[in-house]
């Protein structure tokens, strides 16, 4: 599983008025973060995941719930520029974060080059995994550009020696946390390759 997770050193402000009458700790907190460049200011249940808040509270249903256990990648979004499984992140811990979902990848009517490549390569069938594949691949581009090695990167390659070339083997490994039940993998790899050339 190659999906990275952002630091978890922040939390929202407890809503003092939402505790139990007997003085128990509050169960909801106010959090403020940005989603696709827009501010989001809401009070969330401490148990709510980022995925559920995006879908249920903010109406951003592009990120999909597949397994809800961090195993399929359908819920992948970018948090502070790093890809993350939003089903594993507590929304209350995202105070101050910059979140990008599939709805924020395009620039207005202009698709992100990777979205266009997926169309050109017919890199999906049902499409359920596609938003996660796209967000994960965008995060992967940044990781490779920063020189982060993967499991298949030549271990003899000196660390910090510039970008890692995204060969088909690197793409497959780095996207291995994103499952496609339709088996569109060959076309997904081809689409990602198109953008890296
Ligand atoms: S729904 Fe999050 S990894 Fe499957
Ligand atoms: S296109 Fe159907 S799960 Fe990937």
What does it look like?
With 197 residues, this protein is an alpha+beta fold. It has two domains: 13-104, Ubiquitin-like (UB roll) (Roll); 113-196, [2Fe-2S]-binding domain (DNA polymerase, domain 1), CATH 1.10.150.120. Helix content is 26%, strand content 15%. It has five helices and six strands; from the N terminus they run βββαβββαααα. Strands 1, 2, 3, 4, 5 and 6 form a six-stranded mixed beta sheet that branches. Helix 2 (113-121) crosses helix 5. The longest helix has 16 residues, at 130-145. The structure holds FE2/S2 (inorganic) cluster (FES) (2 copies). One FE2/S2 (inorganic) cluster binds next to loops. It holds the Pfam family Fer2_2. Pathway: Alkaloid degradation; nicotine degradation. InterPro entries: 2Fe-2S-bd (IPR002888), 2Fe-2S-bd_dom_sf (IPR036884), 2Fe-2S_ferredoxin-like_sf (IPR036010), 2Fe-2S_ferredoxin-type (IPR001041), 2Fe2S_fd_BS (IPR006058), Aldehyde_Oxdr_Iron-Sulfur (IPR052914), Beta-grasp_dom_sf (IPR012675). This is Oxidoreductase. Keywords: 2Fe-2S, Iron, Iron-sulfur, Metal-binding, Oxidoreductase.
In brief:
Residues 1-29 are annotated as: Disordered. The chain is globular. The two termini are 25 Å apart.
Helix/strand layout:
Elements: E1 13-14, E2 28-35, E3 38-45, H1 50-57, E4 76-79, E5 82-85, E6 98-100, H2 113-121, H3 130-145, H4 168-174, H5 185-196
Parallel strand pairs: 2-6
Antiparallel strand pairs: 1-2, 2-3, 4-5, 4-6
Helix pairs in contact: 2-5
Instruction: Report the major sheet.
Output: 6 strands, mixed
CATH class of the largest domain: Alpha Beta
Radius of gyration from the CA trace? 18 Å
The distinct ligands, each listed once, are: FE2/S2 (inorganic) cluster
Low-confidence runs of at least 5 consecutive residues: 1-8
Distance between the termini: 25 Å
Number of strands: 6
């Amino acid at each position: 599983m190659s999906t990275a997770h952002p630091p978890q050193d922040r939390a929202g402000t407890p809503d003092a008025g939402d505790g139990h009458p007997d003085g128990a700790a509050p169960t909801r907190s106010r959090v403020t973060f940005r989603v696709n460049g827009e501010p989001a200011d809401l009070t969330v249940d401490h148990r709510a995941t980022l995925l559920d808040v995006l879908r249920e509270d903010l109406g951003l249903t592009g990120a999909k719930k597949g397994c809800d256990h961090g195993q399929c990648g359908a819920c992948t979004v970018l948090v502070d520029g790093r890809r993350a499984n939003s089903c594993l992140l507590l929304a209350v811990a995202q105070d101050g974060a910059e979140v990008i979902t599939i709805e924020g990848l395009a620039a207005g009517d202009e698709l992100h080059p990777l979205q266009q490549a997926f169309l050109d390569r017919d890199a999906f069938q049902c499409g359920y995994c596609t938003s996660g594949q796209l967000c994960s691949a965008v995060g992967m581009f940044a990781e490779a550009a920063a020189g982060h090695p993967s499991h298949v990167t030549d271990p003899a390659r000196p660390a910090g020696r510039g970008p890692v070339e995204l060969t088909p083997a690197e793409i497959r490994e780095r996207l291995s946390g994103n499952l496609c039940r339709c088996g569109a993998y060959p076309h997904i790899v081809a689409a990602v390759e198109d953008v890296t050339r």
